[in-house]
Known about the structure:
Layout: E1 2-8, H1 30-41, E2 48-56, H2 64-77, E3 79-90, H3 97-105, E4 110-116, H4 120-125, H5 132-144, E5 150-156, H6 163-175, E6 180-185, H7 193-199, H8 208-224, E7 228-231, E8 234-236, H9 243-249, E9 254-257, E10 262-265, E11 268-271, H10 276-281, E12 286-289, H11 292-303, E13 310-311, H12 312-319, H13 323-336, E14 340-343, E15 346-349, H14 351-355, H15 357-362
Parallel strand pairs: 1-2, 1-9, 2-3, 3-4, 4-5, 5-6
Antiparallel strand pairs: 6-8, 7-8, 10-11, 11-12, 13-15, 14-15
Helix pairs in contact: 1-2, 2-3, 6-8
Bound molecules: iron/sulfur cluster (SF4).
Iron/sulfur cluster binds at residues 11, 14-15, 18, 20, 22, 56-58, 91, 114.
Amino acid sequence: MKGLYIHIPFCIRKCLYCDFVSVTDGSGIFADYTGAVIKEAEEYRGEKIDTVFIGGGTPTVLPPELIGRLLEGIHRIFNIAPDAEITSEANPGTLDDGKISALLGGGVNRISVGVQSFNDTELKAVGRIHDAKTAYNTVCRLSERGFSNISIDIMTALPGQDMNSIKNTLETAVSLPVAHISAYSLIIEEGTPLEKQYAEGKLTLPDDDADRDIYHFTVDFLREHGFDRYEISNFARRGFECRHNLKYWDCREYIGLGVAAHSYIGNRRFSNSRSVTGYMSCNEREETVLSRADEISEFMIMGLRKFCGVSEAEFKKRFGSGMENIFGKELRRFTELRLMEHKNGNYFLTDRGIDVSNSVMCDFILT
Length: 367
Ligand code: SF4
């Protein structure tokens, strides 16, 4: 069965680090955009789906009736498995009881809250619309209303962040009824206001050593508190790994709906128009046909992100050749350097390997 991703490209205000496709003046087109997504869904009528992920942007800026209309359309058009994982992203400061009811009523059974930090100074420095208290109360309210599979995002390497503040953020996070935590480092993306501040010397970021310390502390802290690292930046209590994101890391098929969304079907990748008006008018898609070399490289790079790594048996099943036939030299070298391990038919990165994962992965790109 395939995964389904739906992009809702609206936000209340742009965070200073954000280069995602989202606009802040979209309330006048919420209904038309929802209609356009449902129309696009019709192209895939009857497809069997077992994971749905509604992301953005901020899906919870939509009013309850549109959240309901979107979810009703998805259930009507697709063949959604009874035990499907259905996730919606949500931002603190955009949820109310009406929206929570619409999400629950539409079958959403997993919610991913963009908390980022429980430190108000850090939240302000990156332009989040909410404070720590609102984030805390949002998670509590979602739990009270019946969500038992709650994920939160937190960020490391935030301006002004130090060991004390990350410790406080993590302690607060694990005290909440959450089953999954994503922890990503802040990246200064080109063309964002944060990049400008950085270039003008107005931003105090943790230096490389502090950044590494914060990152290692985060990994150890979450592990000690029952959150297993199952992917480079993702931690979950046993059984609460995100099934939808695992589809990406396993290179399994998915359909993407909405502006800038990607689909991966067979050996083809489609990407929708990156402009909201372009998407709503004619949505000229770009299509890439992946070569066997592209597919092999992607399988290795995505698979090595997972704690369990890449399976030799799965590799052979997909590509008709042993992993060691193609990457024998690389696998031997990284295993000798203790950047990778080989156990139970899987190759995976060690903790040291994860620290230098980008350069390790580069060696698995076939040209
Ligand atoms: S809420 Fe998310 S998508 Fe919206 S501006 Fe902030 S980071 Fe970007």
